[in-house]
Amino acid sequence: MILLDGKATSNQIKEEIAIAVTKRKALGKKIPHLAAVLVGNDGASMTYVNSKVKSCEVAGFKSTLIELDANTSEDILLNEINKLNTNDDIDGFIVQLPLPKHIDEQKVIMAVHPDKDVDGFHPTNVGRMALDLPAFLSATPYGILELLERYNIETSGKHAVIIGRSHIVGRPMSILLSQKRTVGNATVTVAHSRTKNLKEITLQADIIIAALGIPEFLTGDMVKDDVVIVDVGITRVDDTTKKRGYRLAGDVHFKSVSKKASYITPVPGGVGPMTIAMLLKNTLLACENKDIAN
Fold first, then answer.
1. Would you place residue 236 in the very low, low, confident or very high pLDDT band (cuts 50, 70, 90)?
2. Does the annotation count 52 as an active-site position?
3. Most buried by CB count within 10 Å: which residue of 74, 121, 143, 256?
4. Category of 214 on φ-ψ map: left (φ > 0), alpha (ψ -120 to 50) or beta
5. Can you give the CATH number for the domain in which 104 is found?
6. Which residue among the candidates 5, 14, 96, 281 is catalytic per the annotation?
């Protein structure tokens, strides 16, 4: 069993991006600038956004963090998004999800200009991705593709089962893996909460991507030998034996599944760091796109 080390791989990607940024500086070109909008004080979101800011520093990017109160109105948030859309110095930006319940997330996603949508959530980018046209790929699926490619995991002709059908991970992942690309050409099955005989399906899988948000859902008896496992889930589970009172668990029961897997991502340290690295990669791409446009 080999660990798909997202932390080490993401650090490698950040180093590659930093080299590209240094070259841009030497040529007098614009330095990539990523902005993040955080509404409210959700602990996980704050940790994630701070990690993005630190990653910008490592890569040599400029970064801006806009923090808004949890009671911020939808109109005020949309106004902030419009300012970022029209600010030429900002190459890309993200609005950290989830948002407070009084704000329509879909309206916010639609408000982000597709050329600055480095999260890859806008329908324009999702549509272009589905048609295999140049687009900002959603950062988590993009990170998974990169991880599989850098570990030379064969996907062509393999049966990939994706558990979860979210617009952020499951759906885009199913499209990308079935496309004609280096990490692609797979036969893809999408399973979800209404799927019958799930165990029967997962036992046929060469590759399983678990992205349903239920801790330790996928167990050893549900997978075959030498399966490749990508665990997207991360949930805080109460654990009195831990100093902080909880532990982080993925959607995969690591102890039992790792005994059968040929490759498996750890939680934490697997998909999470890759998501941030690909956000930086998309921002660099947005900056390079401006070079061409100008």
1. confident
2. yes
3. 143
4. beta
5. 3.40.50.10860
6. 96
